[in-house]
Amino acid sequence: MATLAEAIEQWISGQVSSAGMNGVVLGLSGGIDSAVVATLAARALGPERVTGVIMPAHSQLADIEDARLLAESIGITPLEIDLSHPFDTMLSTLPEGNDMAVANIKPRLRMITLYHIANTNGLMVVGTGNRTELLVGYFTKYGDGGVDLLPLGSFYKNQVRDLAREIGVPQRIIDRPPSAGLWAGQTDEDEMGITYEELDAILAAIESGQPTAGFDPDRVQQVQQMMARSRHKLSMPPIFTLQASHA
Fold this sequence. Notes:
By secondary structure, the protein is α/β, with parallel strands linked by helices. It is about 50% helix and about 5% strand. It contains 12 helices and 4 strands; from the N terminus they run αβαβαβαααβαααααα. Strands 3-2-1-4 form a 4-stranded parallel sheet, with helices on both faces.
């Protein structure tokens, strides 16, 4: 019986094959999710069919170093494209925006970059989002959410961490605090106001129909509100249809 890693690898290979593409491209952030996806893709397709792209935008040096470490560990030579100048240009061109609007420019520039490379080389853009992030909307719409494949979309963050250990992701990457790299010092858990451990547990309880099973009611409500606010991110835009009675 195939292991979980092998099952995901077979799925990735099948998706690329059925689409008639040459391989995949993904962003390497230095974080655990991109590390797991890149490793699985390299095992599924061979390193030569995986294009990893490091895309700093006034990023921390540690993020770049960890992304390089991961690329070396799976045998790929990453592209490094500095998006700091395009980011600055966008800021100087756009009307003034709030902190979140400004931060979201970075993942949207990365999405543009990945699709430019994908379209040029016949590749699929593979995303790194996990189930926890998808359920609470912790991703940028048309940014890191703009992808062709989501190999980890069915797995909570703690499951991704277990998978990382199974497939040999460097321990340094497994141990680092999760961060979307939106600004200096930013971490996922600080921004969301909840740890992934607690968030995963509450989400699992909600999905099993037992949202009050031993959890702080305020925390449960917080998670439910996060899910409700972000539901629009998980579906295609609604399309108005003229009903026959109004024709």
